[in-house]
Amino acid sequence: KSLFVIGSRSSGKSSFIIDVFGLNKEELKPTLALDFFCAFHLPEEGYPRKLCNIWELAGGTNYGSVLMTVKAPSDLAAVIMLDLSRPNTLWHTATTSLEIIRKYIETKHKDRLAPVRVPESLKDKLFIKALPIPIFFVGGKYDLFQEFEPEKKRVICQFLRYLAHANYGFLFFYSNKHNNLSKGAKEIMSNYAFDIPLTSQEQFEYNQPLWISPGADSFEAIEGKDSMDISPTLEKYRDLLNNYFPQDEQTNKKYPNNPRFDTNYKEPTIDCLRKERDEALEEVIDEIEKVLRINHNEKDANHLIELKRTR
């Protein structure tokens, strides 16, 4: 099996992967562009072990094109990680992440798209636009979200329930600070990656952590018994969300700090060469600055000083 993990910046994607797949916590470090993990499960004796290849996309949704470098796996699913503690980012992250996945599938899986997975018996089938791969919507940082006012939690949960149901996805909340949520996430992802049976039960109540499998929800239940709108739109829920939490379209346009200053990515040989080049460049800049000041060109000299500060 293969898995893409994308979503909000600093939402805990790496921690989620390491926690639910039982990987070495020493592997936890800031992700640059695209990171790779490999998880495996040892079944009963006599059966081969099962592997799951995992790619984590960094930088929120800034680096969607980087996924195109991954060779199309035959059995793929995607996790969209949404930061519940920052509800003003939900719309942009969710819709942009879905677009990244759709583009990847259309480009890499164009000749082998799986048939639509929505059962014919599902009541809302006509209004569901399922992707040909399993989608998991994960509401991260539930430990912070649970402190929200009930009405705000209701609105967020209503939006996420609609989003998941309209895309025939699995929706569940997660926090590595809650043992039950960590255990539930492990169960869901192990079911996909290693075919381990699910035992948990659905949870639709907004005052509790949501746990809703594909097709278990309905637009009627999401809208409420008194609603006459049997085919609501995503735009309706965007407006509802925006009334409570003005959506920030610019959130994901911040880029990570320069990795050459990050001790997690030390490369002694390369770092030594870089240091030599930097020192040589400093000498050249100093010489040019002296010439400019001799010629009373203070404006360009000050510009050079500013350039040195920002390097």
UniProtKB/TrEMBL annotation:
Cellular component terms (Gene Ontology): axoneme; ciliary basal body; cytoplasmic dynein complex; microtubule
Domain of life where this protein originates: Eukaryota
Keyword Nuclease: no
Keywords: Cell projection, Cilium, Cilium biogenesis/degradation, Cytoplasm, Cytoskeleton, Developmental protein, Dynein, Microtubule, Motor protein
Molecular-function GO terms, alphabetical: dynein heavy chain binding
InterPro entries associated with the record: DYNC2LI1, P-loop_NTPase
One GO BP: intraciliary retrograde transport
Protein localization: Cytoplasm, Cytoskeleton, Cilium basal body
Coiled coil ranges: none
Classification via PANTHER family: CYTOPLASMIC DYNEIN 2 LIGHT INTERMEDIATE CHAIN 1, DYNEIN 2 LIGHT INTERMEDIATE CHAIN, ISOFORM 2
Family statement: Belongs to the dynein light intermediate chain family.
The protein's name in its UniProt record: Cytoplasmic dynein 2 light intermediate chain 1
